[in-house]
Amino acid sequence: MGLTDIHIAGYRSVRSIYFPVRQLSVLVGANGVGKTNLYRGLELVQSAATGTLALDIARDGGLGSVFWAGERKAGEAPRLVLSVSLEDVGSGPHNYSLELGFAPSYEIEIGFRVPTAAAFPLEAQIKAERLTLKQGPRPVVLMERKQGSVWARDNEGRRVLADDNLLASETALSALRGYPEIDAVRETLSAWRFFHSFRTDATSPIRRPGLAVAAPFLDANGSNLAAVFATLRHIRQDTVDLDHAIEDAFPGAQLDVPVPEENASFTLTFPDMPKRAFGAAELSDGTLQFLALMGALLSYRLPPLIALNEPESSLHPELLPALARVIAKAAERSQVWVVTHSTVLSDAIAAETGILPREVIRKNGGTWLEGLSQVGVFADD
């Protein structure tokens, strides 16, 4: 497991919350309790790694819309704090130049610019950034950033000035290169994948043929879905799990994936119309949504973390048990985070895995998890 816990503070409906994360985490709750804010907070951690944090916050409505929406203490400056702890980073098939996996923690603090900063007035500014290593009784600081200056550890463990010319909107995690531990964390977080529904309208990229390029995993918008299926069928030559999932959801249906030439494509044939193959442009929204989720969860190579936000959207309730079984299967190969308002889906996942969902609630005006203590421990753990 990579992600072990997360801390989000000052983000929309989230005043401050810290909680552990499992290999498979399912968060379920009613509309308006802040489920998506937990999902989005985790996604912003990835944005810090890819270097798009300020841009993504601007696209999200800017700092004024992402800060904690409740009351603050007198004189308290608005701040957004995101922190994650990881384990076994650098181990496994992608070694990132590290002989053994290690367990770092990454934290970033975001606020408004100071008057002298080289930035636009409402642009998100990095106030502090830190990467630490859990080692012995005291954590070792591997990278620390205050304002525009960044300090890091060199190969001999000495604290050196790594960069003193960062823009206030740039993250050190995305900018620094050549430090194995920092590189490993950046690559791990950058490899996470987030899926928040898929477009299924007439011009959706999922409904169009894809380029004939081997696709080890699904793009966030699903545009390479046909290539993902073709990679499984013709390069990996193993579609057992995919075929089983389709049979589970649509008994008797057959997925046909021809060998790609210039483009990759697929069709689905149903038992009540055996002579009529339906292309992606003709399938119903729910069927196409289900197939896209199969591409995300059963691709040739799964990312270290897959986050799904309300995957039940557009799906008929009868499809949710089949989806739950695929989610359970994916969790054997990757860490999976599911945010849903469907108790049918969360109960089906629990029935498959024995892992009970965490209920997202409102507590003292902010987003919280049922059974979570103030120190970030669940009673049943």
From TrEMBL:
Chain ranges of the ATPase AAA-type core domain: 24-347
* Pfam families assigned to the protein according to its UniProt record, in alphabetical order: AAA_21 (PF13304)
- Which InterPro entries does the entry link to? ATPase_AAA_core, P-loop_NTPase, RecF-like
Residue ranges crossing the lipid bilayer per the database entry? none
Q: Which domain of life is it from?
A: Bacteria
Q: What is this protein called?
A: ATPase
Whose protein is this, by species?
Answer: Devosia yakushimensis
